[in-house]
Target: Class I SAM-dependent methyltransferase
Amino acid sequence: MTVTPDVLTYYEQGKEDGRLRTGRGRLELWRTQDVLRRALPSPPARVLDIGGGTGVHAEWLVADGYEVELLDPVPLHVERAGALPGVTARLGDARDLPLPDTSADAVLLLGPLYHLPDRADRVTALAEARRVVRPGGLVAAATISRYAAVHDMVYLGVYEHEPHRRAAREAMENGRLLGPAQGFPAYLHEPDEVPGEFADAGLPGAERYGLEGAFWLYGDVDDWLDDPERRRLMLDAQRTLERVPSLLGVSGHLLTLARRPAQAPASPSGGHAGGRARPGCRTG
Model:
């Protein structure tokens, strides 16, 4: 991910760890677990958590029996994640992983793509994930929905303020969220553009999952999540809706999954896609 001063300042506040452990952010966490647990290889398997922050996901992956290595460009994140039992953590950039080819059974990018506003950088990060995962191994990446800013600002009651409204509308038009509410610049994807980025990175056949559906916008979502039985029903309901194309953009976040082909295709430059050669990027 791109560590701009705004990004570093935001993450050094330590807010991200709590965001997924409390309030409606738990819906994103639990739905990410739900989708990944159906797709990951059985433990023990080696999982790379790229841009894994303070280890919110690494923690439950280790508890499930996986061997987890976390890479993140924020020193505070690496320090905190490395203190978690069973988690190996070090500094790293999603676009240039300090790891050998085919060295992991699964690679997760649950944050980097929305910190990379340039498409070429996002494709490079996905290509690096493909390079280090074994043939047939899973690559999973999270993205923010193009419409999340409008939805979220209405939910939070700040859409009435012109700077927030302008930022949300600009993000809906060009994907770039620069407004004050987010705390850092971010790229917001159209659901239909994500599979193309995967394909250009040598990961065809990507499948998209809406994580929160419309439930993250419910005023009483915390009450549902606090009650174990109602939470089970909400998670089950979203599982039935997670692949409906017309509903994907309603989710705040999407999770896209693909597997490295057993026979890696040749890269546009003529090299082998399993090596370090960077893939070409479409501009259309």
Remarks:
- The chain has one domain: 5-146+188-259.
- The mean pLDDT is 89.
- The chain has eleven helices and nine strands.
- The beta strands are 46-50, 67-72, 87-91, 104-109, 133-145, 176-177, 186-189, 207-210, 253-259.
